[in-house]
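Researcher: Next entry in the queue.
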Amino acid sequence: MPHSDDFLAVHDPATAQAAHEPGSENRRWWGFAVVLGAGLVLLCALTWLVSVQRGLAALQESTATRADRYAATLESTLDRYEFLPALVSLHPFVRGLLQAPDDPARVAAANHYLAEVNRRSHASATYVIAANGIALAASNAGEPGSFVGTDYRFRPYFQIAARGEMGRFYAIGVTSDEPGYYIAQPVEAGGKVIGVTVVKLNLEWFQRAGGGSAEPLMVSDDHGVIFLSSVPAWQYRTLGPLPASLHDELGKTRQYHGRDVTPLPLEPLTSPVTEWLAATALDPGARLVRVRADGTNPDGSERADRYLELVRKVGPAGWTMQVMAPLDPVLGNARNATVAAALAYACICLLLVNWRQRRQRTRDMLYSRRLLEAAYDELERRVEARTADLMAINEKLEEEVAERTRAEGELRAAQDELVQASKLAALGQMAAGITHELNQPLAALRTFSDNTRVLLERGQLAAAEGNLSQLPT
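Model: Structure for this entry, 473 residues:
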């Protein structure tokens, strides 16, 4: 009969057997899980990158629109006041004052005129400076903190105007301690500068245009000093370290006197991912930056905030306007899109796993069915073989039984014959004994008779008679 190992070797091939071994199945499942995990990582990375890329493009487009609007608003304001110092310089009251600065009537007329101009133009202050740098008349004459009598020779806008050019300067007032934008126009007569007319504008309203902490907005001068900012902590900070000579110049001009001008911890994001995003989603004038944690964030926190920075050049003084759009909404949307993609991928993976399990179950059922069919066929073959063997054994047993029956018959016959022979032998022995018992007296009688006959022949009657007397009775 075939052994069970022979059955497995014939009906369970090595490939099928290996395919259904527990270790092989576990390896396949681990491989499947690794592939799904790699797919999840790749999908999340691509989803995040694409979402951030599209979010940056949309954020740049919307921020560029607002930046252009902010720049246009500031430009229009500066342009609207650009002509005012020249207009003031042409008025007879101003020229009369510069020609006779010691005349009280001319001083009073000039002060009244400057106050009226300042009121109608909504400027912060309007004043006239003599060629020696001393303010002769001002719109705030007679008020506390009046500019009249103040020496402005240290101010760059006066120095530029004194050379016959139009001076523009943003600084904190040394008298009023209020920041403002100064526009200076030289007043010429006879080919030389006899005085300077100055209009001061308050631009503090502009730093509120950025919507507070939602979208930081800042304007820096040609030295990189931030003089307007929607984030108060960023105002009077620098975009980079200032050289010592520039620090000395700021001290001499008292441009930001009383303010500690320190660098703003602003730095570009330089990782390979951000560089790729900047190259694929941003225009050349935009970049990704972060403000490192030092308590200067819009919300007062000490975390590093990341922004999309758009730069616009504004004003004739070479200012730089920077609109800082927070990246948190873009990153949040990308994170949400990534989570949604991961969940969708997880659902698909669950469906795939379920489908694979059902397929594996079906495959196992088919394999088990094939094994059962093979086992059934083998069992039938074994039953047939065993039946044939049993039939052969049965026939052999029948032959043996018949042979044994015949042998028993022969044995009984032999036993009967033996009994008969034994009986005959007993009879023979008995007959021999009887014969022996009979032969002895007969022999004695024959002997005595022969002796008697001989004695009679010899005539020995007495001896013969004695001999006969010896015969048994």
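Model: The first strand starts at residue 125 and ends at 130.
Researcher: Noted, moving on.
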